[in-house]
């Protein structure tokens, strides 16, 4: 029998971490991270990792476990999360899965048919095109063969744009169609899923405040140090916050421009997360102050 998972999901800055720590502490449980950026070491401020106090209060898993230059896929996340859940369950403790990366949650809860493998030659040619003509040129290629996926991916997300082109090249069908036809399997675990859903204006205010706090805590300095350590091509360096902080380091943005752009792009990301979670079957959407969740047992 697999353990029942309590999943706390929702958009960035909705309060997932604090609430999950409170619930896990009360239930004697442990937390499995489901944020695709928090798995990486060294990238701390911009990924909004739990504070040292929160990490000390409740055992956390899959936080800072991957080298920044190490390839890391959703399938690898599933493997490591399964192992963590098995360990926690063996200790007889409740499992809380917490994060806002919808794909990670979906592959953990439902699984997915294995995708076509990588095409190194195609990747190399597309990466060369991005260097020569800009990432927009690669994105235009995707828009020609898979406009549905292209509409969902910004041109700066080169990794996923190239992956979608790989799927099309190897299967002959758009990645969007492939995913529908080779979708997710029945539930891998019994679970209850709660999506934190603050009112939009409240969420946007929180995003602005958190963005300002990240830069005040030293996000630009952290980015400068990470670049000096050779992490310019690390996956999290392409995420919102680090893109803007790097631009400040390189003199392409002022600090104020970086703060404003980070808050704006974070709002857009939160909207995409909300759209994703609205499609999750069985998810219970909960508005603040989350008192109903606080009454839960393990």
What is the structure about, briefly put?
54% of the residues lie in helices and 8% in strands. The protein is an alpha/beta fold and 298 residues long. It folds into 3 domains: 5-114 and 184-198 and 280-294, Rossmann fold; 120-181, Histone, subunit A; 201-271, Helix Hairpins.
Question: Which keywords apply here?
Answer:
298 residues; Rossmann fold; Histone, subunit A; Helix Hairpins; 6-stranded parallel β-sheet; 8% strand
Order of helices and strands: EHEHEHEHHHHHHEHHHHEH
CATH architecture of the largest domain: 3-Layer(aba) Sandwich
Termini, distance in Å? 17 Å
CATH superfamily of the largest domain: P-loop containing nucleotide triphosphate hydrolases
Low-confidence stretches: none
The secondary structure category is alpha/beta
Shape: globular
The fraction of residues in strands falls at: 5-15%
Helix content class: 40-55%
The CATH C-level class name of the largest domain: Alpha Beta
Radius of gyration: 19 Å
Number of strands: 6
Under CATH, the topology of the largest domain can be stated as Rossmann fold
* Multimeric organization: single chain
Characterise this structure.
This protein has 298 residues and is an alpha/beta fold. It has 3 domains: 5-114 and 184-198 and 280-294, P-loop containing nucleotide triphosphate hydrolases (Rossmann fold); 120-181, Histone, subunit A; 201-271, Crystal structure of tRNA isopentenylpyrophosphate transferase (bh2366) domain (Helix Hairpins, Orthogonal Bundle), CATH 1.10.287.890. The protein is built from 14 helices and 6 strands. The protein has helices at 16-27, 52-57, 74-90, 102-110, 120-133, 135-145, 147-152, 158-171, 175-181, 200-217, 219-228, 242-249, 255-278, 291-294; strands spanning 5-9, 30-33, 60-61, 95-98, 191-196, 284-286. Strands 3-2-4-1-5-6 form a 6-stranded parallel β-sheet, with helices on both faces. Helix 2 links the parallel strand 2 and strand 3. The radius of gyration is 19 Å and the shape is globular. The two termini are 17 Å apart. The relative contact order is 0.17. The mean pLDDT is 93.
């Amino acid at each position: 029998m697999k353990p029942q998972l309590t999943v706390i999901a929702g958009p960035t800055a909705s309060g997932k971490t604090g609430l999950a720590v409170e619930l896990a502490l009360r239930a004697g449980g442990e937390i499995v991270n489901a944020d695709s950026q928090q798995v990486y070491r060294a990238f701390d401020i911009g990924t909004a990792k739990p504070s040292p106090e929160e990490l000390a209060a409740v055992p956390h898993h899959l936080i800072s476990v991957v080298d920044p230059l190490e390839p890391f896929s959703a399938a690898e996340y599933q493997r490591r999360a399964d192992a963590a859940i098995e360990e926690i369950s063996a200790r007889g403790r409740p499992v809380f899965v917490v994060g806002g990366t919808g794909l990670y949650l979906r592959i953990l809860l439902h699984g997915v048919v294995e995708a076509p493998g990588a095409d190194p030659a195609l990747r190399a040619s597309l990466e060369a095109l991005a260097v020569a003509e800009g990432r927009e040129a690669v994105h235009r290629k995707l828009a020609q063969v898979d406009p549905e996926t292209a509409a969902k991916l910004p041109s700066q997300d080169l990794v996923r744009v190239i992956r979608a082109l790989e799927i099309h090249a190897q299967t002959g069908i758009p990645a969007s169609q492939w995913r529908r036809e080779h979708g997710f399997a029945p539930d891998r675990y019994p679970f209850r899923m709660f999506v934190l859903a603050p009112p939009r204006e409240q969420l946007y205010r929180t995003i602005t405040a958190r963005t300002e706090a990240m830069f005040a805590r030293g996000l630009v300095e952290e980015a400068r140090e990470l670049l000096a350590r050779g992490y310019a091509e690390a996956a999290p360096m392409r995420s919102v916050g680090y893109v803007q902080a790097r631009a400040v380091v390189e003199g392409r943005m002022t600090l104020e421009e970086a703060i404003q752009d980070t808050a704006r792009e974070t709002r857009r990301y939160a909207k995409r997360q909300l759209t994703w979670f609205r499609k999750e079957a069985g998810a219970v959407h909960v508005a603040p102050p989350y008192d109903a969740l606080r009454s839960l047992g393990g």
